[in-house]
């Protein structure tokens, strides 16, 4: 793999913290109108609110909120008032109202059920680690020892199954099993104590012992960024297969926003997650290239350029991204930039992976150098399935 530009730990935490802060802010309209927004709606809103295209985000958020308002209040048309949804460029305003301009009554009956006014658990693993229970954010010294935090992160990543004591010892204390079995139980005690300090009695239910070992069991409404990232990619594939190209693009946009950086990029000793980190990095690169190629094929060159650059920011040796930039620059009359991008590709590949550009990249360079416009990338490449356009 080529070299990546690592995010600084404080920057990664700021990004993932911003996503969860945005999620909490989205509760306000629901609280005001006595609506308990479902978890899937909240996830969709927090992701849509960060889309690069504010118009898409506004439509997405507006439809989701209106659906909940209609179900509770019988709203037919949006007429009165507004609810603010934050996004990267400022605030999205979604109109809402009741038939005849009526307002919801204030009082006990308008309050959402107890426990639903804030997301119970949110975990950020991409780019930097962040754990929050409601509004309480876990401090760095909560765990007592770095090993306790690492074991907790391991259990979160493998939350779909019980992890045996042997697997934990092999992962964290492989050099002296007999000695470090005691260290494991001490570390698990620190994890339990940390979760209780953060979440109170509910923290005791997050880590359970089963016949097969130990398992992290998050509450149903938990938001885990790795899970949301992979779900967005799966949703993009499903939408593409169904011929809903614009929906697939929106899901890929969400995936890119959720990928704040490599898995546990701020963890000092995280060799144990290297295979998963590499898998997630490949998922990100594939999703980003799919998105950029479709934007390019539609003639949306500024947006395609943005995504190609984003890919190279993460991994400067991705040759397909260099090719994409060369094509987009040439198509927009920036021949000099296109030729310079090839030179940058040559130097990056030499430094990062000790290789030279492939024949396709070199042929593209010669085409542009001769003053000819290269063919644009066909839609749907690269990726597992083509993104068919709805236009």
Structure description:
By secondary structure, the protein is α+β, with helices and mostly antiparallel strands. The protein has 14 helices and eight strands. It has helices at 9-25, 27-32, 39-48, 54-73, 146-157, 165-172, 177-199, 225-241, 245-258, 274-297, 301-314, 319-331, 335-353, 359-369, and strands spanning 82-87, 90-95, 121-124, 130-133, 136-137, 207-210, 213-216, 223-224. Strands 5-4-3-8 form a four-stranded mixed sheet. α3 (39-48) packs antiparallel against α4 and α11 runs antiparallel to α12.
- Count of helical regions: 14
Oligomer: single chain
The CA-CA distance between the termini, in Å, is 37 Å
Overall domain count: 3
Strand content: 5-15%
Chain-averaged pLDDT: 74
Unreliable spans are 1-16, 19-43, 48-118, 381-391
**Side-by-side strand order of the widest sheet:** 5-4-3-8
Alpha-carbon Rg, integer? 24 Å
| Helix content, binned percent | 40-55%
Return the string of H and E elements. Answer: HHHHEEEEEHHHEEEHHHHHHH
Major sheet attributes: 4 strands, mixed
* SS-based class: alpha+beta
Shape: elongated
Give a brief description.
This protein is α+β, with helices and mostly antiparallel strands and 391 residues long. The chain has helices at residues 9-25, 27-32, 39-48, 54-73, 146-157, 165-172, 177-199, 225-241, 245-258, 274-297, 301-314, 319-331, 335-353, 359-369; strands at residues 82-87, 90-95, 121-124, 130-133, 136-137, 207-210, 213-216, 223-224.
